[in-house]
Fold these 4 entries.
Entry 1:
Amino acid sequence: MAEQTEGTQTINASAEEIMEIITDFDSYPKGTDFKSAEVLKKDKQGRGSEVRYEMKAPVIGDVALTLSYRYKSGDGGVSWTSKDIDGGIKSIKGEYVLEELDEDETKVTYKTSVDLEVKVPGMLKKQGEKQIIKQALDGLKKRVEKG
């Protein structure tokens, strides 16, 4: 697995409110690069534990993948690993880590590592991962704070 890239942003909401948005997989196709998202399995708390996505990714084109999710205790975040991928990517690993600063403010750290099937120079790959992280954190902040 490749080296992890990470980014952090403070969001004006509780960790619980942020986790509600993160785990609302049915909403992922709205305003993102995801064409579809389908929850295949749920855990005992009713949260998605396996989700199938279809998306259009820069450089590699159409990708269909299934991610397996593991939840941290409380509202501490969630991690994921790829289970099944069709198209241009060998594996994906990532996580959201939520650290509540107070009841209305949470530090959110997004970490990811993407292993592509095609060789991409390390600097370009790192820039791509940073862009994914920035878009994810900005999108999350916008969805949470508008609510």
Note: The beta strands are 5-11, 34-42, 48-57, 61-71, 77-86, 89-102, 105-116.
Entry 2:
Amino acid sequence: MVKSLSGGTDRATLLFSGLFYACGLAGVFVSGQSSDRTGDRKWHCAGGQAATALLLAGSAISGQPFAVVMMWLCLTGFAAYFWPSPFWALPTLTLTASAAAVSIGFINMCANLAGWRGNYQMGWLRSHGYSERECLLFLASCYLLGSLFTGLVRIRPTTLRQA
């Protein structure tokens, strides 16, 4: 998508795509700092997923200049890597140790399946006449659904320890 929008070479496409991951690195750092400071893992995760959905949908708005699309994609990179760090703390906050271990394995199993199925689904959509824009909106809806599910997670109340 970046190559088709920029009309650039393979090298330019690689450099533009690298911006997405550079912003993602910043997202990991900021979310770790913020969720550690506040202790709020659930809403950092749900909010990051919702932001990813909205920013990804913003990048799908047709008729935008390439610079604006790249801005959307860079912000999407920030948000897409913002939510996973607090997400992996949720099983231990909501479950017993053994159940958390099983849930982490189950989450990884589902993620592997989604990684395979997602590529297949995008290929299917593209081969059946759906545009890149519609595929991005489908991905955005998946992030939004994840945000809603994360928002439903119940966190056990904890007692604050005096240091």
Note: The chain has a mean pLDDT of 89.
Entry 3:
Amino acid sequence: MEFTNPANGGSVMNTISAFAQLIPAGFETQGVKSTDGSVYVVVEGQGTVEIGGTSYRLAESDIFVVPAWAERKFQARQDLVLFSFSDKAAQERLGLWREHLA
């Protein structure tokens, strides 16, 4: 889910996009890569993230970064709630943002 500015329906800031994501326990996401760099915070739950082929364990309060065009996949051991923000809004305004499902 992407957070939006209630005044205009756009991104929360002119250059920053913000997101909340729920990955249910036992679920594994498809790999995806995009041109924006993202910062993630684990709000609650446990799981793993694979970034560019390397796996990392995730637990509540962990903070991690996914660089631009690095493939990411998530797997949830418990319901995994993530908050993230990125420069997607700026890239969209410049016509640069791209995403690819692996």
Note: The first helix runs from residue 88 to 94.
Entry 4:
Amino acid sequence: MVRVITNKDATKLVENIKSEGYGVTSFVGEGAKGQVKTNYTVIRRKDVENVVKIIKNFNPKTFYSIEEIRSATEGIFPPINPYHRISLGTLRTFLIK
């Protein structure tokens, strides 16, 4: 899970994350220096680099943290390419036939 906290308008950040197929949950809160926007997105480990790039394009100095989630149900994630999920056992079976 990636948490982004910013005191700037995060509309563009949220739009960019959503345009890549990720879900985003946003809250308005109170920080030490006033109102902040907190945005959460649950992503796969392999997508961390892409999401961090989106965050840094929004604002290179934006505070973000990344936390490990052991399991999650439901949610919005980019589609997985089915060819990346083929196992060697399946491939062997396919090649033998």
Note: The radius of gyration is 17 Å.
